[in-house]
From TrEMBL:
Entry protein name: Secreted protein
Amino acid sequence: MPDNATPLRTEFDFELPHGYVDDAGTVHRRGSMRLATARDELAPLIDQRVRENPAYLGVVLLSLVITRLGTVTDIHAGVVERLFAQDLAHLQDLYRRINGLDSGHSAVSCPSCGTSFAVPGPETGSRLGEA
């Protein structure tokens, strides 16, 4: 690796559209999310809440990778559950972008000739944990 190489960025700051409101009524809009690891992606699959409701995967996954939300550093599923829907969607989109999961295009092949090409994805992507 060259000496002037840029170090890997693993943490990303964000600002929520509405913000998380804690028990004291304080609104927390700024936070930080780290890159997901393979363990982060696999751990929710054995979580009983995810087994009972696969759509809950996104909540558990975000609770593992959000490192800070304002002054709140103990991020758990209960915190993510209390986010406004627009804030949850914002974080799901950020997760997909920083982890390279949302290129905006899908690779497809023509069933007749076998030619491969990219097509634009849907206008709105599915949320984390949804098929």
